[in-house]
Amino acid sequence: MTYADGRLMHDADSHLMELPGCLDPYFQPSLLSRFHALESYQDKLRKMDWADKARAQQAEADFRTGAGDAIMLRKNYEAHGAFLREDRPPALDAMGFASQLVFTTFCLGNFGLDQSGDMELCYAAADAHNRMMMDFCAIDRRLLPVAYIPLEDVARAEASTRLAIELGAKALMVPSLCPQNHSPSHIGLYPVWELAQDAGIPVVFHVGGEEKLNPMYKENGLPPVKDFHGGDDNFTSVSYMPIPNAAMQTMATLIFDGVWDRFEKLKWGAIELGSAWLPGWMRSMDSAAGAFTRNEERLQKLSARPSEIVQRQLRVAPYPHEDVGWVIENSGENMIMFNSDFPHIEGGRHPLKRFDASIAHLSDETKTAFFSGNFIDMMGKALPQDLHHPAHLRVA
Q: Considering only CA atoms, which of 29, 249, 200 is closest in space to residue 124?
């Protein structure tokens, strides 16, 4: 029996747990030493003291026995299929999801290069990441690789987008954080959105690309607060709060400046940014449009209220601890998507149990939309037709 128990589910958020050196075979050779010398890269390596243990553990026959039965219990590098390419298809079999959007872990934030002055290295790292993701996911068509596109340099952004689509990207991840020298709605980025729309793949925001908490909030004179992993580098209750802020501002700017209307067939996703912010954000944008329409021609040109544009084009993957039923009731039944966050510990060992409880009172049609329909809608042509409703899976 699979974790999904035979129900039709598409997973809007899963990850790799890449090992050190994962980008080396895909990196432009002339730039690799410069990349290795980055302090941000070295800092990531220093925090990966688990890597040698992971390699040894995953090579042990005893450890691998019963891995499928423990598919949602083992987390991070201990999970089956976390970093070994050949293990991911049987891991997905054990989960029982019809498809799975796959994001990086090691490369989230692009090593801070978007905020640097080295655009050559910035885009080289992004392109190397994209090649790595396509290669990993090529083993199984149910695995849908997500490419990363920095928005700092409009010409390079277009080139990286073309390359990612040619390589087989099924979604484009862009940073929530505003570029250094222009708006994310800048007309120079129109080719990026047009390429995605023409390819029929979504553009998504994901945790890791947002503005970080001001570290002074932690300086309260008390001992450090531990995160999920027992340290203080990941999210705590205070650093959790600003996670969606940059995405809300960026998406509002794209909507107000008419980008979503201009590319009205382009779908967008907010992944691992939570969802409790969604209803209030939608209403805040409607309030802003109502208050400023008289003076702003751009608002007068919008095809509908901002909240209606959002319902048309945005899909959101919530955290399992949120009151997802309330979010759906106050935003729209066509917007919220199931996700596992596999194999990250933040996703929990039984996210399905939490989601089921939260939406138990909703209609069967709304539940089906949550577990499969909204993801299928977001993915568009990127999800092969025969994977929409596989015959061996029943509607959730």
A: 29
42-67 pLDDT, tens per residue? 999 998 989 999 999 999 999 999 88
pLDDT in tens, 350-385: 999 999 999 999 999 999 999 999 999 999 999 999
Tell me the C-alpha distance between 3 and 93, whole Å: 9
Checking if the pLDDT of 146 tops 70, the result is: yes
CA 47, CA 233: separation in Å to the nearest integer? 10
DSSP code of 45? Answer: H
And the tokens for 209? 């690309």
**What is the mean predicted confidence (pLDDT) over 18-32?**
97
Cβ-contact 160, 192 below 8 angstroms? no
Biggest CA–CA distance in the chain, Å, is 69
CA-closest candidate to residue 88, choices 26, 24, 15, 165:
15
C-alpha dist (Å) from residue 379 to 70, 111, 196, 305: 29, 27, 11, 24
Reported as half-sphere exposure (CB side, CA atoms, 13 A), residue 201 has a value of 23
Which fold, 7-219+233-384?
TIM Barrel (3.20.20)
Has this prediction a pTM greater than 0.90? yes
pLDDT of residue 230: 55
Gap between the Cα atoms of 274 and 247, Å rounded: 11
Domain boundaries, the chain: 7-219+233-384
**Token couple for 181:** 């020298």
Q: Which two tokens stand for residue 52?
A: 């040698």
Please, are residues 106 and 18 in contact by the beta-carbon 8 Å criterion?
yes
Annotate 83-100 with DSSP letters as a single string: S-GGGHHHHHHHHT-SEE
Query: Token pair for residue 193?
Result: 């959105």
Pairwise CA distance, residues 189 & 173, whole Å: 14
